[in-house]
Amino acid sequence: MTWIDSALILALLSTISVAGVFYYVNRQVKRQYLTLWMMAWMFYAAHVLAAMGLKAFPGEWPLILARRVCIGISGLFMFWGSFHLNSRPRSRWQLGLAIGLVVGGCCLATFVANDSYWLMAVVFGLLGSSVIYTGKAYLKPRATATHNAETVLGCGFVLWGSLLLLFPLLELSALATAVSYVLTAGVAVMIAIAMATVAEREVNVAERVAGRSYRLLFDATSDAVFLVDMWRLSVLEANRAAERLTKYSPEALRGMAFPKICPGLEKRTGDVVQNQRAFNAMFRPYEKVELLQEGGKRIVCEGEVAFAEWQQGMAFQVNVRELGERRRLEEQIQRAEKLSALGRLVAGVAHELNNPLAIIMGNAQVLAAGTSLDEAQKESLGRILRQSERASLIIRDLLAYSRPSEPNKAPMDLNRVVRDVLEWRRQNYEAAQVSVRARLSESLPPTKADRVQVEQIMINLINNAVDALRDRPLPREVEVATEETANFLRVSVRDNGPGMTPEIRDRIFNPFFTTKPIGRGTGLGLSICNTYIQEHHGKMWVESQPGQGATFFFDLPLLDCKGEALVEPEALAADAVAPAAAVAPTGQRLLIVDDEPDIAQLLEMILAGAGYEIQTAGNGTDALRVLGDEDFDAVLSDIMMPELDGQELYHRIREIKPDLAKRMIFVTGDTLNSTTRDFLNATGNLFLSKPFKVDDVIHRVQEALQREALEATETAAVGSR
Which residues does 13 contact at the CB level (< 8 Å), separation at least 6? Predict the structure, then answer.
């Protein structure tokens, strides 16, 4: 054996060793680029074997071809692995295509070209450049963070790549060839050692990250979790829930004998099988087990036990939860389900009340617009309208409670709202002989909030305070105060009434909870107020002791509204009885579609009195039949109807008369419903909310018809161009 043969054997062994190291490392860290590099080293080893074969059988073309192909394929695998390392992966079909080109080129060159030097220079150039590219990938990040092993690995790849680029020249001399193979073997060993070191560091980092992630999950679980040594039954680790449950500090828990916490367990026996049986018998789902807190207090719990890995060993994992806590959670879930069902019932009832309320209000407005009424009759109609609007607000609140929505925030003066509400309610609290005093901060800045909702909150709190004082001896006092706190405006309503017990105070904001006699309260007022405040991202609470009165507080976020006009209070309901502006007869034809005959008749009476020609239909199917025979300028349609509802009617009209579909006006009693709201937003059509005002009906129709005229004008203008 010559010394060149020895150098080849040394290079082969080192190459195979490097491939083995890469295989082992890849099993630890699972990286795609390591798999590709391992294949590159294997093909390089095949090249060395082919070179050894050529020493024994010079000139054999299969060995020459195999050597060139293996070098080229090794370079491709090295390149593809480096692409993955740099997060620029190439697809497998691209790799397959490149391998096919290398194999085809080498075959063609072997049988056609005679200059073997340049052929070897090409394939070694491919391999050498790929290896140097890999080395630069490891050296480039070192400008910001230096790791010796990665620096050595990068230098090793660059050095090996440089030798590969020079290899075609070195092969011209037998001595240089032998030296190059020996140097390659040494560099390969350096690369293997550096790669193993880098992989070990990655594994350690991954284990630390996994350990932190496990610790976060371990501490985040709501169950108390104990890891218990299977032989000594000592606590190896416990999460924060376990610390809260047992009242022991973390240091005291670690190493503590678990039977001290769970006295029902027998003392350790050292027999893992018996320990397992004891734990399985003690900790079973839905079975009670007593644990001891620090200080000796017993608590009733339930739990289960399982095996868990712990520091390359096994341990008992005991999950425990206090039964009282689970029962509270179950009660909360049951209460939430009941409230959800009640909310759906309330929404349905409120929706059904809108139709009769719309009929009452509409007919009262029509009567109030007449000229033959005396003052007493007008005043009676005014009371009907005011109480009807009050009922409509209650219905709106019920719908808002069952379907919460974002408040309509606008700049407002909180002090002005408080003064207005006190003025509106003056007759009520004076009749109850209650003295109401306002202590308002004069420097209170404006904020953005839903004025209507804030008014409802103030009315509810003042009414509740007056009701609490109704049967109390004099003096009966209520104080309303405002002040600015950090980022909030605070309102307080204090009374000197009987106060509340802690049990009542804890439930006061629960839906449908009331302390008033039957017929005087629904139990929704404070719950709705609390919902409004939460929708404003504020806070509401009460402070009270038995016999010491009660003080309700709510905070509204202080929002910047500089340069914006303040919202003024809306006109009182009495203004609604003013007659609508006279409208000249138009002769335009309207189709009214509603399954409620009284609603359809009311709309017909309002619009016929305004000069329109009216046709009615009881549902969507009848409406389509009428539309097939006659033409109309606009359509007023209810949304919720049997057979064919308003949404489907709109889609059908859009198919047969698209221009008329744009002039549909929808009538609905529940614009808070998400499905209805999405439909109205999608169509962009006008709508009327039940209960409606006479003026609103006429104005909506006029607006829809004006849209038609505007679109016709724009179309004519575009055509003239």
Answer: 185
Using CA atoms, how far apart are residues 491 and 458, in angstroms rounded to an integer?
9
Bridge partners of residue 290, in order along the sequence: 300
Residue 415 dihedral angles phi and psi, to the nearest 5° = -60, -40
| Residue 582 DSSP symbol | P
For residue 20, give Cα distances in angstroms to 9, 131, 184, 386, 502.
16, 18, 17, 90, 73
How do the domains of the chain map onto residue ranges?
A: 3-205, 221-327, 331-402, 410-574, 581-720
The strand pair at 589-593 and 613-617 is best described as parallel
Q: What is the pTM of this model?
A: 0.40
CA–CA separation, 375 and 381 (whole Å) = 10
* CATH number of 331-402, picked from 1.10.287, 1.10.530, 1.10.3470, 3.10.20: 1.10.287
What CATH architecture does domain 221-327 belong to?
A: 2-Layer Sandwich (3.30)
Residue position matching structure tokens 């006008």: 686
Range 581-720 has CATH code 3.40.50.2300: yes
- Which residues are within 8 A (CB) of 412 and not within 5 positions of it... i.e. 6 or more apart? 446, 447, 448, 449, 451, 454, 566, 567
How high is the mean pLDDT in each 10-residue block of the chain (721 residues)?
70 81 77 82 84 77 82 85 81 86 80 65 82 79 56 82 79 76 81 78 64 65 85 86 87 86 73 84 81 86 84 82 70 64 64 72 74 74 74 65 66 89 82 86 87 85 85 86 88 89 80 59 72 86 87 89 64 37 63 87 85 88 88 88 85 89 84 70 83 83 77 52 49
Fold of 3-205: Rhopdopsin 7-helix transmembrane proteins (1.20.1070)
The dotted CATH code for 410-574 is 3.30.565.10
Classify the phi-psi angles of 587: left when phi > 0, otherwise alpha if psi is within -120 to 50, otherwise beta.
Answer: left
Q: How far apart are CA 710 and CA 718, in angstroms?
A: 12
First to last CA, the chain: 98
